[in-house]
Amino acid sequence: MGNIVLSADSTCDLGDELKQRNNVHFFPYHIIFRGKDYLDNVTIFPERLYAGYYEDKSLPSTSAINVQEYVSYFQPFVDAGQEVIHLNLGGALSASHENAKAAAKQLHGVHVIDSYNLSTGIALQVIRAGKLIEQGLSAEEIVADIEAMRPRVHSSFILDTLDFMAAGGRCPQVLAYVAAPLKLKPQIMVNNADGSMSVGKIRRGKLEHVLKKYVTETLQGYPDVICDDIFITHSGISQECIDIAKQAVRDAVPVENLHITQASCTISSHCGPNTLGVLFVTES
Question: What's the Cα-to-Cα distance from 37 to each of 4, 26, 42, 153, rounded to whole Å?
């Protein structure tokens, strides 16, 4: 067993294969749905949330992982004489990072990092941290490296529907009502300076056509994309759309490892089905 444990919130959307390959421990968020408490992508999955919404407009709620939960989670690693590097969902989106920091103060050798990101924007940092652990860097050196990397991680998504954002109070109901017949597809941007989100370019047309343009324009907008690892992450979408996005990535950049993952309930419940994003790192 190594001396440094790599850990992340379940919202990093790494997927089972990459989780095992990088030896990452996950802490699942709580999803409260129809009065019951579930564990994100453990005892409940996005498809159930979508079905509930379309059945009776049921929406889940999420709560920040509290301090004591983090203490209980980190404690066995500390007791085993290990250090922990844990990456959180962006602090602008959740109080979990502040709670993880409070827990770390009660323990020795626990290092928590605000990813300033979400979904596989976090996963890209997790993969980097895993490589540095293999190279034998200290926990302090790894934390410094990841914090320097954060401004170079780029995350965005195309939404097919605004219904879920509107239902959760994250955009006006009238905007969702107007967007559907006009086939408006907004691009949600993650600010890698603090992890907050905003609306970027709004495209119009069939989802398949919009996704191709979005992926191409996004990747070609940067001259120095690092092609080692690029993610396509979706909230549940057709294989046709995934294939279109994959081809657009390969046409735009000489990607080495193109990872396809599905978003957790925490992410999916806010954006709704048929959301897809491309997430990557640049040299500068």
Answer: 31, 18, 12, 32
